[in-house]
Amino acid sequence: TVEEVHTRSSRQQDSFDIFEDEGLPTQGQTAPSEPYAKYVWNGKLLERVKDTVHPDWLMYIIHGFCGQSKLLIYGRPVHVTLIARRSSKFAGTRFLKRGANCEGDVANEVETEQIIHDASVMSFTAGSYSSYVQVRGSVPLYWSQDISTMMPKPPIRLDQADPYAHVAALHFDQMLQRFGSPIIILNLVKKREKRKHEKILSEELFPAVINLNQFLPPEHCIDYIAWDMARYTKSKLYNVLDRLSMIAENVVKRTGFFINRSDFFCHTLRPDERYTQTGQTRALLSHLQTGVLRTNCVDCLDRTNTAQFMVGKCALAYQLYALGMIDKPKLQFDTDCVRLFEELYEDHGDTLSLQYGGSQLVHRVKTYRKIAPWTQHSKDIMQTLSRYYSNAFSDADRQDAINLFLQVYQPSESKPHLWELPTDFYLHQRNSMALTHDRRSYTYWWSEGILSYLPLPYDEVPCEENMKKVGVRRVNRYDESIDTYTEFFKPYELTSFDDTFCIAMTNSARELMPKTVGVDPSPFTVRKPEETGKSAVIGAKSSKEETVVQRKTAASAPPPPSEEQISSSSEDDSEDDRDDDGSVSQRSTPVKLLTESGESVRTQEVWDGKRADTNTGSQFAYLGQNQHKLERTEPSVLENAINVVPVSCFTTDSIYEVSSPQVDRDNREVFEGHVLTGLGQVRSLCREDILMYREYIKNRYM
Predict the structure, then answer these.
(1) Backbone CA torsion sign across 176, 178, 182, 186
(2) What is the pLDDT of residues 275-284, one digit of tens each?
(3) What is the pLDDT of residues 494-523, one digit of tens each?
(4) Which of 16, 96, 179, 116 has the alpha carbon at shortest distance from 391?
(5) Per the omega criterion (within 30 degrees of 0), is the bond before 182 cis?
(6) Of 134, 484, 540, 586, which one's alpha carbon is 20 to 30 angstroms from that of 600?
């Protein structure tokens, strides 16, 4: 009832607001009381304790992938985050979990979200960020593969006839409820085969989609895109990624993406035709993503990851354009930005492939671009063998561990042991042992109330049913759950900037940008293969201590040698060779010793171990020498040596009165620029800013 909800929220306020007595400002926060249970992996384990302990003690975990990198755009930090959430329903390993169960949950279902955050303003309220979501999952049919024959590709078989697409209807009903419309299916399985293998799935999925679409309104029908990606890869006449980029462009325009701010004035003054065609649902001062792309092949690993990368790359261009980072919503390959994003997606694909298939990716983006090195073929063979070994010998034990952790199987004295079960089919197919009394209609196959809110997802609309799931609690505005600055920097602890994750994370300027002088520092400039940052630094150490030392001495160190000067020997050997040659060491500083007459006697090398300290001492010595310049030809006079003049810039300076200094126009413009940046309004860069940034990059990273 309403009174129970009010009493529960009041109790949460009293127990959570620990700063109210200290006079710190508090604010109300509306947050879901329960997470989305489909992607929580320890939900069953927490059921026994969540009613007895405080909610802060409950730690909900997900299974999947999380990666973050920093993209530097002329010194402006942009955090690129990739989060993959694996479904806990019908979860398992490659050959043991295929298709869907009787409740519409599919195997290997992963929701991937890419978040772009303008990190120059670390605030959820004043900052700018954007998000795009896409999904992968097995073909929603009753199908499996027999692994008893020990074949690399066991034959695909349909376990149960489903002429009215009942299981597909349950699956797409879940997607409409969570993502809204349009639902776009990208089916990458093979169409032409000498022996029917993957084609069996396409022949069953397409009629199921046709059957479901005839009952939906035309504007909310499920889109079905079938494309034989493997056949296109073997052909020399077609470019696989060009075809995928066309599909991605169409998908992103239809679904749109989320962004928490309205359009910039530059988008109104200089509108881009492709950006204005995106089908975003516009809310108050923001844009929403409605609908989702669902990609699948047979395993949902190699081909699916490449297709998702191309869609994510297209969405990344639109996100950066919407945040005011680029002038056109288009990104090209071989740029620092796309290479950074490609590495994130390869790590994302490797992790998901290890969890489901037992090995890393076999075919990567470079494979489909046909620029992979010749050694990649042998690596692909090893990954294939590793995947085959894992599927044949270790997947059964992994499946038992997953069933036990998710509480799909609960041990009991009256039940047989987990390893004694001949199959776990009945554990995941709960309705197979009894007839369901509430069988859903074959024509009205969606849940009640979904169509009335489309294209918005039903889970996010403020209807009466959803408001019952939302609780209101009162928190302090400095709480870590809503204050990014406090969560990241932890001002109440003794921390170091070098230990923060933003320093250690992958940095486009440090790891991808070329280290040669005179190169365009923009991360959107196409690089040649020999200009990449990783090929220029061959013998660089990757330890944390070396990174800290390089960062501290980057401003005073000389430029690095070219590729021709870098040998295959270690850095220690090369330093010994330079010392033996009698040349001046990089860590020694020449200091001039002066006599009383001011003549230079000799130059001596002084080594202090720290170049930065030596430079600081030299600067102080230089200031001391030039503070009181005297003509040596004249006799020294005490009045000339001691020159006592007011050094304050204030006209009147006392403990009672201080006149404010006159601030010139340039300083006022700098201050106004900082204030506008905090408000989210960034002025355009001029030529002096670009030159200053190039000088900064050259001194710090080269």
Answers:
(1) negative
(2) 777 766 665 5
(3) 888 777 787 888 888 888 888 776 778 889
(4) 96
(5) yes
(6) 586
